[in-house]
Each structure stands twice: as structure tokens, then as C-alpha cells.
Amino acid sequence: MHGNAVRRSSGFIPSHGSKALRIVGWSILGVVFAVVFALVFGYVVMLLWNWLMPAIFGLGKITYWQAFGLVILAKLLFGAFGHHRHGDPSNHFHRKFKDWRDDAHAEKKDDEMMEGWKYYKQYWQDKGKAAFEDYIRRMENQEEKEDEG
């Protein structure tokens, strides 16, 4: 038998130790992916800056590390890439209250709007279809006049 694995008829079933090893492996892979992404993103920023900014604004070209620093500076100044305040309970309360208030207002508005829609089908049968066909004729006549004149 291998390590802590148990032999069953369908093959080896991994033990908890190998599951933990798999989690650590995926975590390391995730960190490596994030670092590679950040490095590539810095390179893309450098290429875009050096292509656009000197031609448009007359600014000088920048190095890779300056571009990488710009990305970090933008993150710090503008909170790009998703800004979350997990530890601020007052922010959570205000956001939930605003969502509730907006939802209540939207429901009232939807109910008012839907009240009038119960007549839509009958209106369309009585007047809508004829009015729409008349509108199409007017638009076609207008296009013909514009083409002639």
C-alpha cells in the first residue's frame, strides 16, 4: 500500500493528507498565477503608455517597473479592481438600507406601471395595430419624399 491511501476495488482512495496536499498545491498555483498576471499586466501598461502617451501628450516613455508602479499607484488611489470594506459595519448597514429603500420604491413603481398593462392586449387589438400600420405608411411616404427632393 502507498502512504495513507486505502485500497478499494475501484482503486486507491486518497487520505486526508493528500487532500491537504492538493489544497496547498492549488494555493501555490493560484499565487504563481496572480504574480504572473501582475507582471504581464505591468508589461501591457508599459506598452500602451509608450505607444499612446508620447504621441498624444508628448510625455516620455516609461520602463517596465515604472508601469508596474503606475498600476499599484492606481490601485491605491482609485481602489480599482474591486474595492470592498469588509470590516466596516456601518457601511454594511447603509448599503442594506439603501438597497431595501430602492427595492421598495422600485416595487411600487413596477406595480403602478403594471396596473396599466392589463389593458395592453385589448388596446393593441382595437387601435394599436391600425395606428402602427398608419405610422409605417407615413414613414415610407416621408422616405419617398426625401429621396425625390
Blueprint (SSEs and pairs):
Elements: E1 6-8, E2 11-13, H1 16-57, H2 64-78, H3 89-117, H4 120-148
Antiparallel strand pairs: 1-2
Helix pairs in contact: 1-2
Walk me through what this model shows.
The protein has 149 residues and is mainly α. Helices cover 77% and strands 4% of the residues. It has 4 helices and 2 strands, in the order ββαααα. It has helices spanning 16-57, 64-78, 89-117, 120-148; strands at 6-8, 11-13. It has a two-stranded antiparallel ribbon with strand order 1-2. The longest helix is centred in the first third of the chain and has 42 residues, at 16-57. The protein starts with 5 loop residues before the first strand and ends with a helix.
Distance between the termini: 92 Å
Rg, rounded, reads 32 Å
Structural class: mainly alpha
* Order of secondary-structure elements: EEHHHH
* Strand line-up across the major sheet: 1-2
| Parts with pLDDT < 50 across at least 5 consecutive residues | none
Overall shape: extended
State the helicity in percent bands: over 70%
What is the number of strand segments? Answer: 2
- Give the count of helical stretches: 4
Q: DSSP strand (E) fraction? A: under 5%
Largest sheet: 2 strands, antiparallel
Mean pLDDT: 78
